[in-house]
Each structure stands twice: as C-alpha cells, then as structure tokens.
Design a protein that fits this description.
The complex is a heterodimer of chains A (174) and B (295). Chain A is α+β, with helices and mostly antiparallel strands and 174 residues long. Helices cover 32% and strands 28% of the residues of chain A. In chain B, helix 5 packs antiparallel against helix 7, helix 9 runs antiparallel to helix 15 and helix 10 packs antiparallel against helix 13. Helices cover 72% and strands 0% of the residues of chain B. Chain B has one domain. With 295 residues, chain B is mainly alpha-helical. The longest helix of chain B is centred in the first third of the chain and has 26 residues. Chain B has 16 helices and no strands. Classes of the chains: A alpha+beta (174), B mainly alpha (295). Chains A and B meet through helix 2, strand 1, strand 2, strand 3 and strand 7 of A and helix 1, helix 3, helix 4, helix 8 and helix 16 of B.
Amino acid sequence: MTKHDWRIDWRKAVMALVLCTTLAIAGCQAKAPSQFDQVQKDSTARNATPAVAKDATKGGEFNQFFPKGQDGYERVYTQEKKGFAEAKLKKDGKELAMLAVTDTKSLPAAAAKFANAKASIAGYPSVDMGTTQTSVLVSDRYQVKVISKAPTFDKDDRTAWIKKFDLAGLSKLK
Amino acid sequence: MSKSIFELVDELPTGGTTIMALNALDFVIPGQWQNLTGFTNTIRSVTGESDEAMIQAIGERAVYLYNDEGEGYQRAMWLYQTVDNAAGALGMAAMANKIGQDVSFLGFLDNLTPKPEKVQSIDLCIKLVVELVAYCQINGIPGDSVGDFLAALGDYGGESLMRMVALICFDGLIPLGPGFIGKGLGTLNNMTPNDLEKNDTFKSVSSLIPGNNSGDKLGFIGQSFDSVSGWMTGFVDQKGLTQENVLGNLQKFVKISEDKLDYVGAFLDISVKYYTHTGTQTLARRLIERAVAEL
C-alpha cells in the first residue's frame, strides 16, 4: 500500500466515523411522536398558564367537608394540594372509591361541563364521566367527585357518597 | 430541558437488573407490585378507563400538573433520581474499598470496613428522609391531624411499599445486617453537622431537606428516621426478613456467583436504581389520580 493510498483510507475512515456519529446523534434525538407532544409544548411555553390558579382555595380547607369513616368504611386522606383534596374510601382493607373536592378556578372547563347537566344530586347539578365517575358542582366553583375503584361500587354508591359530603358547608366556603 | 413525564414513564424498563432485583423481593409482599410501565398504560390501569378521549384528557391534565414547577412534582422526581445516583457513587467507593481484600462472605455481612458502614448508615437514613420529603412534595400533607397523616403513610401499597421493602433489604439488611436500624440511629447520634456536610449523598439532596443549616437538617434526619424505625422493626419481624432469605431470593433472579457474594451490597448500589424506577411509578399514579379528580 502506498503512503498516498493510506492517507485516502484514513480520511475515508474519519469521514465514515463522523457520518456514523452524526447518524447516531440524530438517531438519538429523533423521538417517536407522542399524543402528548402538543400539551407538553403548550404547558412548558414561556407564557403558559400554570396548572393551578394562584387564587385557588387551599386543599386543606376542603377536608372538613369530607364524609367521615363510618359503618366499617374507612376514610384515608391521600392528597392535599392547592385547589385539591382527595381521600380513599376503604372497607375491609379493600379500596372502593376515591373521594375528591377540587377548585375549578384552575380548570374552568371542569365547571363548564355542568352547564348542560340534566341531573342533580341534593340540588346540585350532577354529571357522570366515563363509567367510573360521578360529580356535582357546588357554588359554580367546587367540584365534588366520587370515582369507583372497585367494580361493586356502582353509580348508586357514588351518588350516596356524594350526599354524605357536607355540601351545604362547602357552598358557604369563600 | 428535562424529560417530560410521559417520556419518563414510557421509558421505564420492563427488564434488567433493577426489575430482577425488585422481583426478587416479591416474596416479601406477594403480588403487590406489578411493573407498570408506559404512560397511557398507567392511565388505563390506575383509572380503569378505556375511553380514548378520556385517556387523552387525563394524560394532558397530568402533563400540565407535572410541568407546573410550583406543584412540587419535578422536585420529587429530582429527589428520587438524585438519591439513586448518589448511592451509585457510594457503591463505587465501597467496591473500590473491597478490591485487594480477601474477606469472607460472612465477614463482609457482619462488618463492612468501618468507614463504608458509617457511610452506608448515613445513606440509609438520608434515603428514608428523601422518601418523606418526596412524599410531601407529591401529596402535600393530607388530612387535618397527625393521625390522618400517619394513616396516609400507613396506606403505602404497590410500588411505594416496594420502594420501602427495597430500602429495608438493599440498603439496610444486606449491607448492614440485622441491626441496621440501630446502626442508622447510632450513626446519626454520634454525628456532627460537619460530618454530615462531608457525606456525598447528603450534599446531593441537602437543598431540599428541611432546616436552615446542617445542624437543623441533621436533627430532621434523626427525628424522621427515629419515627419510622418502629414501623421498620415491626415490618422486618412480621415478614420474617433476614439477610439469608433476602440473599437467597435475590440469587434466584440476579446472577451472583458464590465467590462474589461479598460484593452484593456494592453491586446493588451501582446497578439497581429502585428509587428512580418505583418513584416514577408513584409520581405517575398520583398525578393521574389528581388529573381524574380535577377534570
């Protein structure tokens, strides 16, 4: 092999290496598109609306309106954040449902869905979502929702447990 | 930019050392941990929902919540990831310390060389505190009383409980032996804020540990570890956990040759990222539960 040939081979090798590296880097960067790409972009934009409204009610203020554990039912609080409180409803150690109060100030669309509500529970407009959720809107602002976690816990159970919340008390919350 | 929550959940591994090591602990809490991966898959599993439009709406709200930096979710993720990485560095140091020494298996289990044992004890305590801090970042402080809060902690299940089992087994029993809780408490009691500041694991997460200075932070770590020590002791007794049965089960899943058993603790530190893995699963579950409630 001549010196000249060797130099060409060397350059070829470097070129090949550069090409491979470029492809590898490009390959790493090319992500499969996701159904959540748009919301990721929207929620991380410089002027994005925060997920939780600044003036949302503190989650801790909702606790007092939750139904208490009774008749073998156990209530375990699980989350308490601004504009949101949630508890788990259990019986015999088994998870039956989630009980939640949320402030729709952070998510006006959640309140808007009650505009066309055809049903009501304890005088408050009520809607069902999917097959596992029933909720009411109190004072056009606070959503009280019961979500089934066990198949035996049906719509009637959800309605009954919504009634066990102190909805009148919640309606006076400012 | 840091990764999105759906990428992090989509990229959770379905196999590898971490998963094998966690599966090896199934005997402690049989069937309670399934390796749930994939973002939409997690939404389906957590909510029982099959309607695609609903799954999209839940996922979008969860992404929004995660990306709101004021909500604490990203801090919790950072804590889980950071404490795993710091432990990895510790494992490397412990491994280096073992090289060139001919120590019997039992000798290693009974007593690591003094320095690694002290470091491992601190690591155990800090990891536990990280769990408490991350818990509060994710869930707030649920309920109105200490009793409510303890009930919330007592309700640990699934991947959260598996993380605690792994902490007890991989960071307690295996490296420190059956007296691991006493060793943790003893180390903290004999420690000065100055000692704490020199610890790499502490350094990596200290900014998020409550307290104005290292003295306060040391106090918080001590109180936290002390308050959970009763639960841990009870759990170890109730489940009949020993170094032997944990190692025995581990060997069914992770190949550890007999002559390398004394490297187990260091090996686990380096290769098992159980905080990041199960922490991501916990975070995704809580975000999804909140998103469903808010929609």
